[in-house]
Amino acid sequence: MEQAEATEKIVAALEKKKTKSKFYFNELAKILELKPREAKKLINIMVTDGVLEYWSSGSTSMYGLKGAGKQAAAEHEE
Amino acid sequence: MAKHETPLLDQLESGPWPSFVSDIKQEAEARAKNEKGVEYQIPVDVCEDLLGVLELSFKHGRTHWKHGGIVGVFGYGGGVIGRYCDQPEMFPGVAHFHTMRVNQPGGKFYTTKFLRDLCNVWDMRGSGLTNMHGSTGDIILLGTTTPQLEEIFFELTHTYNTDLGGSGSNLRTPADCVGEARCEWSCYDTQDLCYNLTQEYQDELHRPAFPYKFKFKFDGCPNCCVASIARADISFIGTWRDDIPVDQEAVAAYVGGELAPNGGAHAGRDWGPFDIKKEVVDLCPTNCIQYADGKLTIDSKECTRCMHCIAVMPRALRIGNDRGLSILVGAKAPILDGAQMGSLLVPFIKVEEPYDEIKEVIENIWDWWMEEGKNRERLGELMKRQGFQRLLEACNLKPDPRMVQEPRTNPYIFWKEDEVPGGFQRDIKEFRKHHLR
């Protein structure tokens, strides 16, 4: 799968979800219908490109669209 | 005069143990005086506000921290754990109080210069408070603000030649024992293997894509000084295949009292003369040691490498010469579903660069766990849920009696129909000829 196609798929799928803004890695892999290792390469590029951002509780990591949710404001971040 | 009254915390200092409250107060005082003229980049009263928020939490019986967040350094999904105070106006010094995890040196070999430099960076750009070390083994720097994260990361990587450690759903900072550098019992070069795998799996360390945390630990021998068997999802424990070499003269010297047992440890008290039967032979878990007519013999095929006899008489007994390691999997601390010890997956593997055989085992395990593991499920829990046999299939390994921890209590390795000659179907008439109903 091409990077652009993957990014489009992820953005479209995550924008549709209204109830939550943070997603586990395997939810993203499922959207892409790829094996985790292949999905990881594409998803990491989306993070580097600023489409997605990491969220970490310290023990578990999740992904979200950059700026989505209340996180930034609640944490006094830009 | 302290910034906040802390009667409940003060009470903690009255116990018989060293108190973290005293440590924080000491740091608060040092920051206030600033005798070294440090250009503090985060609030000077961070430690005082930390004490204040702790006191408030004790008073209310609930936390005033918000844990987790989007903070990190560019390109890394781990190494920084966001922490914010939910009373930022009352305690502005700890409004941001992020944790940073830093990769510790192999075997925790520090130079005093490195430690001093690290402390200097942290005094200037953080709270000055550290945990040396976290239970994963990494250096934990407690409390800094978001704008300092990239600055600290740059210093660590460019000036001090180290890196952030793992956090979140990542491979966590691998930890190893001192190994061959200082220990004659090390069965392989723990530091080389640890370093090699750390470099090989940089992507797994910094970019989270696992269902949950994943830990490697490297122990040079079954003494397990870094507790890999109890803590690591994959533990690499040194072992050997041949006999324990016995120096009978040295055995006689221990029996005769010329050599102190346990390398002279426990010498602060008179335990009476060394009793080889009571202190060594009778304590062997598999009863494979005999001492008769002044001669010590070991039945190697019964030995489980518990290391007790070697530890008591290090001059007389040594590790074998055909050395390698065992791979155990699935250990974890008791966050969910109780604590679990590692299960033996690979009884013996030679440790040879470039470690391809070991990497193959690791990657097979990851492929299985990444596909089948539920979110926040450790490898040990997946093994329990799907069975050890599924793990063996994922790793292309054949079952081995040594993998069965307790015979007859849990026969979790089953025959499949295609492994049995003739399968499970049989001619019932033929069977009844010999076995009446």
Task: Describe the protein in words.
The complex is a heterodimer of chains A (78) and B (437). Chain A has 78 residues and is α+β, with helices and mostly antiparallel strands. Chain A has a single domain, classed as Arc Repressor Mutant, subunit A (Orthogonal Bundle). Helices cover 50% and strands 13% of the residues of chain A. Chain A has four helices and two strands. In chain A, a hairpin with a 4-residue loop joins strand 1 and strand 2. The longest helix of chain A is centred in the N-terminal third of the chain and has 14 residues. Chain A is globular and about 35 Å long. Chain B has 437 residues and is of the alpha+beta class. Chain B folds into three domains: 153 residues, Alpha-Beta Plaits, CATH 3.30.70; 161 residues, Sulfite Reductase Hemoprotein, domain 1; 65 residues, Alpha-Beta Plaits (2-Layer Sandwich). Chain B is 32% helix and 13% strand. Chain B contains 15 helices and 13 strands. Chain B has a five-stranded mixed β-sheet with strand order 7-8-9-12-13. Chain B has a four-stranded antiparallel β-sheet with strand order 2-4-6-5, with no helix packed on it. In chain B, strand 8, helix 8 and strand 9 form a beta-alpha-beta unit. At the A-B interface, helix 3, strand 1 and helix 4 of A face strand 2 and helix 12 of B.
